[in-house]
Amino acid sequence: MSEVSERDGKKIKRTLEGENDAVHLHKLRKEFDDLVAVDDLDLGIERGILYGMIGPNGSGKTTTIKMLVGLLRPTSGKAYVLGEKVPIRDNISRIGYMPQDMAIYTDLTVHENLELFSELYRMDKKEFKRREKELLAVIDLSERKDSLVSQLSGGMKHRVSLACALIHDPEVVFLDEPTVGVDPELRVGFWNYFHDLKAKGKTVILTTHYMDEAVKCDIVGMMRSGRLIGEGTPNELMAATSTTDLESAFMTMARKVGT
Ligand SMILES: Nc1ncnc2c1ncn2[C@@H]1O[C@H](COP(=O)(O)OP(=O)(O)O)[C@@H](O)[C@H]1O
Ligand SMILES: [Mg+2]
Fold it and tell me: Residues 6 or more apart from 32 whose CB is under 8 A from it?
């Protein structure tokens, strides 16, 4: 069963039970000793949208994503990605993940890193060549294809990490702060690419500190202290708080819930 709703002029299909969503969380919780990093989080992310998670440092964004990609075991609750219960096994190559802290090999070249990821995902060689060319252009590193990653700047390494997450053309991609340290011009290029992915029916789930980026997402989830304190289209969130920017909307939501 599903319903189609119109939000800000965009048609958004939501599966009522959530089983067909890109992500579906039911009271997902993660404790580190006494600290509750993710606090019984309920969340549904439909397929084919750009979803932005925003919130201050320590609000549980990275921990949530790590549980979804199987790097952390939840303390309790349930999580489904593409309808499969986490930790997923069957759908692994349908998912891409760019960690907040870089996970590429500095003693390999850019090309070798991309090739390694393509092999992990058992990609066809011809398809790999095509994707590599496309992604190197997006990250503006075509000329540095054969450079050792250790010789690249921090921002360049970050861009390689993004390309590695996308090389196998995943259906759902989790990008943890993909644009940190990326210069403004290239950020625009990244965002155009995220919109291209969405146009191809992919689901892009990202975290960001930049409110000018959050506003470009279809749906924004506001996290604070491991909880979702607000969710909706940027316009809905601003209307609900009688504000004109997402930063103020966030502050108002945080005051309302008193955390
Ligand atoms: N491996 C860990 N061990 C202990 N505490 C952790 C660990 N990972 C994250 N935390 C804590 O969990 C909380 C949420 O962190 P995180 O998910 O990284 O937040 P965000 O990504 O929103 O900045 C923070 O208080 C952080 O210090
Ligand atoms: Mg984080």
Answer: none
